[in-house]
Write the structure tokens for this entry.
Amino acid sequence: MKNHIAVYPGTFDPITNGHLDIIERSLKLFDRLIIAIAENPVKKPLFTVDERMRMVKESVKKYKNVTVESFDCLLIDYLHKRKAHIIVRGLRVISDFEYEFQMALTNRKLAPDIETVFMMTAEGYAYLSSRFIKEIARLGGRFDCFVPPNVAKMLKEKF
Ligand code: COA
């Protein structure tokens, strides 16, 4: 699968160690990875797009061939603009499957030239979700083990 540009889309509100695991492993498969931060106002993100851009850039600065961008259009249109044909998504637990399957099939119907590649999340992160991390942070629990240090700092500042 070399010589391909892959796009890893998500809301990343915030980016977690689970996302970083997917990023690291994707780089073994693809030459270039674009992390595409969806503005996603429907999810009412805690962090603004600028804040999410900043935290993701800082979290992935050690990796070569990774760029971070944001988008507010259809994902497939964004891939076409970037001349990319692969979407990377992480699969955690069985409950992710139905949503991911629906999204992958819808995207394929809209853009048959684009493939979605799923990577199994490392078992240590199978239960992790940005929503729970935000809740733990809001209620004063410990969350340092779930996110990179720069994100932990930004979460502390938010609450
Ligand atoms: N480890 C830990 N947690 C993970 C993870 C991993 N490897 N992968 C995903 N997650 C978690 C996230 O933290 C997030 O948790 P939350 O729901 O509690 O916030 C959840 O899984 C899913 O989030 P994410 O991976 O960021 O995806 P998303 O569902 O928020 O984003 C888009 C989906 C952005 C790809 C999709 O909405 C999209 O394509 N939007 C653009 C518009 C479009 O084209 N729509 C048509 C789609 S068919």
Q: What stands out?
A: The pocket of coenzyme A is lined by residues 9-13, 16, 18-19, 22, 38, 40, 74-75, 90, 92, 103, 106-107, 121, 125, 128-131 (CB under 6 Å). The CA atoms of residues 8 and 149 lie 21 Å apart. The chain has a mean pLDDT of 95. The two ends are 42 Å apart (CA to CA).
